[in-house]
Amino acid sequence: MGTKTFTGEFRYSIDSKGRVNIPAKFRKALPETSEDTFVVTRGLDENIIAYSLDKWQQIEEELLKLSSRLPGHRAYKRQATRFASPLKFDSQGRVAIPANLLQHAGIEKDVVIIGMIDEIEIWDPEILKRYEETVFQLDAEDIEAIDNYTRSS
Amino acid sequence: MGTKTFTGEFRYSIDSKGRVNIPAKFRKALPETSEDTFVVTRGLDENIIAYSLDKWQQIEEELLKLSSRLPGHRAYKRQATRFASPLKFDSQGRVAIPANLLQHAGIEKDVVIIGMIDEIEIWDPEILKRYEETVFQLDAEDIEAIDNYTRSS
DNA sequence: CTAATTTATGGGTAATAGTGGGTGATAATC
DNA sequence: GATTATCACCCACTATTACCCATAAATTAG
To answer: Distance from B14 to chain A by nearest Cα, in Å?
Structure first.
């Protein structure tokens, strides 16, 4: 069977009931153990991130290693978990994304869904375009630094 | 059995259903583990690049080493994955290239497919010709720089 | 040179993907 | 306890895609 990773870009819109389609390709890439479930949460950019249930459980394990005595650790842990919610897709492959996440990502109607190998990003098309034109711009130095980073580890 | 690398240049056209033939020579050069699958994505020039599934999986492994907390790393990973899609060729050896990639490469009907050893480039014939006449021109200095680069690694 | 096989191209059809909406159960509100 | 909103589950329609068969050209083998 094909790849088990998320790649590619898809465009959908939210229907009158607040449901968004998940690309069939991504649904198929979900491991059996994720039981048709993605966990969505706030992204660090102005977007939503979705993980397979499996991947999310790994993230939870990492968070458990943090100290509950250090304020910084507590804040990070809180930030990572308070907006997370597992979503099981229906028989047509759609999920209903919580309103507070949609608001955080500035999504009203149309969405762009981007596969990022082990995670999925959900964007408002206009906001994504704005990021592309400004925030995402990498210059030659950045790219070289990242290039070295992957090579050295 | 021939070589396992991609070499040579071929010319095909996209049929009414949006399918393009992959040269038989390239299909045969695919390792068994790639399961008749190429991964296509945007090229840095006005073209499309195709990798064997194997080669792409190597790229993915590199990308997974990046930190999802660093904005630069995220942007790099996003840029590398959002246009990538695995394509399995049908029993006649054809693939359907996503419309957004065709648009990026300015391909409408005819394509030139070029073997580049471990990757494949797909061009619009006219655009390729334009690049040859201008951008691709190498002078003596360029060649010397490349010479030094290959000797030092 | 001829036959057999492979390659490139065209097209039909069944299955799937994406979208819309109905209905009954559950939960929330008054 | 009645009323309303919300959600999970189901069915339906359309466009697209995947899969299959067919043919002509080209290549290879005998």
So the answer is: 21
Q: Rounded CA gap, B103 and B106, in Å?
A: 5
Number of domains in chain B: 1
B2 pLDDT higher than 60: no
**B134, part of any domain:** no
In a domain, A131, yes or no: no
Token pair of A96 as six digits:
């209903």
Footprint of strand D on the protein (CB under 7 A): A 17-18, 88, 90-92, 96; B 17-18, 88, 90-92, 96
Contact A116 B64 (CB under 8 A): no
- Which tokens sit at B41? 């994505």
Residue A19 belongs to domain with CATH number? 3.40.1550.20
Instruction: Name the nucleotide nearest B26; use CA and C1'.
Output: C7
Mutating which of B42, B64, B78 best tests the A interface, going by the most A Cβ atoms within 10 A?
A: B78
**Dihedral angle sign, alpha carbons of residues A59, A62, A68, A71:** negative
pLDDT in tens, A32-78: 888 889 999 999 999 999 999 999 999 999 999 999 899 999 988 88
Mean pLDDT, to the nearest integer, of B22-28? 95
Given a cut of 70, whether residue A10 has pLDDT beyond it is: yes
Instruction: Give the residue numbers spanning the domain of A106.
Output: 9-124
Indicate yes or no: CB of A117 within 8 angstroms of CB of B81: yes
Let me know the angle formed at the C-alpha of B16 by B12 and B17, rounded to the nearest 5 degrees. 100
